[in-house]
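Appendix B, example 12.
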Amino acid sequence: MADYIGAVDLGTTSNRFIIFDQKGEIVGLSQKEHRQIFPKPGWVEHDPMEIWLNTQEVMKEALVRAKVSGNEIAAIGITNQRETTVVWDRNTGKPYHQAIVWQCTRTDKICKELESHEGQNRFREKTGLPIATYFSGPKVRWILANVPEARKAAESGDALFGTIETWIIWWLTGGPDGGAHVTDVTNASRTMMMDLHTLNWDEDILRTLGVPARILPRIVPSIDRDVWGYTRENGPLKARIPVCGALGDQQAALVGQTCFSMGEAKNTYGTGCFLLLNTGTTPVHSHHGLLTTVGYQVRGEKPVYCLEGSIAIAGALVQWLRDNLGLIREARDVEALAKTVDDAGGMYIVPAFSGLFAPYWRSDARGVMVGLTRYVNKGHIARAVLEANAYQTRDIVNAMSKDSGVMLKNLKVDGGMVANELLMQFQSDILDVPVIRPKITETTAQGAAYAAGLAIGFWPSLDKLRENWSIDKTWEPKMGSKQRDQGYRGWKKAVEKSFGWIE
């Protein structure tokens, strides 16, 4: 058998290809950013063709850096920004419109219309999701309603829909020349069109949304011994490699962190911030603003479900500090700037740039800075940026404990921001639990690699993957309860100030 597994990591801001060995360690990596397109306030788009071209480039480059040939890759796993929506021509591969990104709020009117009948929870019993601009179903409806060419093709059977992993799997396995049109259960569970219990597309919801079933991909397990397709020998890897594992990025991080037991949780700090709690093989419906989602499924086994808290703006707030305000030159500089002060000076930033996700689900919210005085300087602003991530996470943890009855004992963390030690310490302080960073923090890509490797027997079991996981650093809470409670009360007041800006 070949010695390595490849993982395609299709993030919100960049694409990466990472090559892992048997121990789950990285032997090669390449990354390339893609454009963030903002046609109107609240609208966010990507160019699907740019994502595909960049994917090919990073695959080639990672092989060169690792000094590995495509024939040494045993299988390919995919992980992706979820909910981002593409509709394209099955004959040419040409998208009918730019990809509508998960952060985009253009479907607000569609969502309000859907809510007007039975409320925001109209589909929650089936899908585990509230009606929100976040999810793919309303985005597909928007494309079909606003792009006549797409609507005509959908009616004739020439159009295909997919989230980003579907788009890239289709191209990797042949594109117009027989490419596999599939989506795994974790990504399907984020469309607002799949029944959580049957793991099938729901005909009633499709009818309500006006989405023809013929454009939808086949739903498959995340870890699938039935290979979906093979890369082409004239493709970027110059080899015929099975594509057989896929997970939405947050579920991939759950697998990468080996949270295979009920009650285990992880938090990923990326463009957004996402906390998932493994609730076992029975879906737990939330009454406190969380999402019920599929964590992963192995072919022939029951799916594992999660409660999820989704935060729209986390690392993106640091990017805003860099790109829009110019207070730092690089994202990593935020920690040094925040360390120039002892606290946030009584100010808070609520980053509701495109509304608030869990546990509030307020599309009418917009970002606010509150508590400003002449005393506040750029160091306090940087500190408030970091603290906003930790406070939003506490909102999620509180809701999760109410829904599940499970009190968090520790929090496994991953993602780009976990290199920020000031943030990690504050996160431990504000949650009053240890925060644990693993040695390999590329857990999203690692989870995708694990999915593909398990499918082909590269790794024999989940227990073997647990052996690969190890701790890099643990932060213990140091903050007193009075200070912790006072800080969080201020945060809750700040959140309320963000409500009602869009009428």
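The mean pLDDT is 93. The longest strand covers residues 26-33.
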